[in-house]
């Protein structure tokens, strides 16, 4: 009886699908250029100059990436590159739209007496990081080779990483520890997940997640047989043996450490969810999922009891009841939330003293804990304003939401593209994940199966965490929306992720080597 992987490989089209990939890439660029054109026409009444600079620059980079893929991975999945280019292009168009320094929107809004938040949307910088990200995609495709071609200089295959499982795991741990190193670590918006290198800020956790996928895949390939054994059966669940709980407990304590030291709920949730999902893929035991959910809930509960985890507790409080914290709220020891927004006298008092944060200073005087839900609530208002079809690109006011170009770019797009546009974006993400999972099932090697499955799931989980946070489904976290949010770390890491999937899909989809002669036939050699 054939396995699922054998059945999928039997149905895979072993012919090259490069024409389909090229047609989809053209469609992705038409979508991007149309977005730039609509932004300019709606915002300033004319085709923007950015259509040539940004749209043309992205087109050149995308087609360079396509021809590299055509040359070195001709059997790669035809959807992965066009889908990633479409997301990157739409994100670049929205950031260009939010870059108010290039727009008449600022003058119109100021003339109307509207409040203009200090924004940091930077379209030229995002185009530069797009260039770097696609450059890393090209480099990764060139360096990674077919699993049966290991003789090329300065090259390795995805399978090669299995030999360095623990070294890669140690490297991931070192990357995660960098933000807490004095002198280079930086705390931004309450979370310590950044490092400063020269004039740039880098989020090492974005690269650590890929290394952790390799480490988890290599570890679980060796241990999956033991972790698949059944200990006790409780109802319909087959629980693992007590001795096999060690690895998941180690990862649980590790994620708690990340949560405590970096005060970042999103990163801890991402890493722990990644390990539990890969553990389920390796063992196919549902009991591990329930154990993981239980440990996750216990970890969040423990975090809420610790006094130095105020930032995480604020996020949970705002998620449960955001209205009292709008524009600034102060949680007193009695449990009462007192407003310290710009309309209150105590706020005006510290504002007159030129305090850096009048609301936080006022709350400190009251002896409470300060939090502000304006970011979350304004994002929800933006989604409500967009409705089903949206206001249209360039016709809304997404810049009124704090961090509309990074953490809340999903809400910004929801205001101008509506629920319909958001569903299309989520469908693109779902297609990337589906193609990655299909690659995982079709892979012939157990390590590559886990590697491709883990890479796909880490993308899916990151999208769920950030989208769930900005829509108030779960507490808000500091993760970025892949390919859409402004920032170089996320863009570079996610383009490397796409390169890994492209290489592994090529290996899974290419035809197996044919034997020189049929087995069983006897070759007669004459000695005369």
UniProtKB/TrEMBL annotation:
Segments passing through the bilayer: 21-41, 47-67, 79-98, 127-144, 164-184, 204-221, 242-259, 265-282, 289-309, 417-435, 447-471, 483-502
Domain of life: Bacteria
Membrane among keywords: yes
InterPro entries per the UniProt record, alphabetical: FtsW/RodA (IPR001182)
GO MF terms held by the record: lipid-linked peptidoglycan transporter activity
Coiled coil ranges: none
Cell inner membrane in keyword set: no
BP-aspect Gene Ontology terms: cell division; regulation of cell shape
Keywords of the record: Cell shape, Membrane, Transmembrane, Transmembrane helix
Membrane topology note: Multi-pass membrane protein
Signal sequence range: none
Protein name: FtsW/RodA/SpoVE family cell cycle protein
Lineage start: Bacteria, Bacillati, Actinomycetota, Actinomycetes, Streptosporangiales
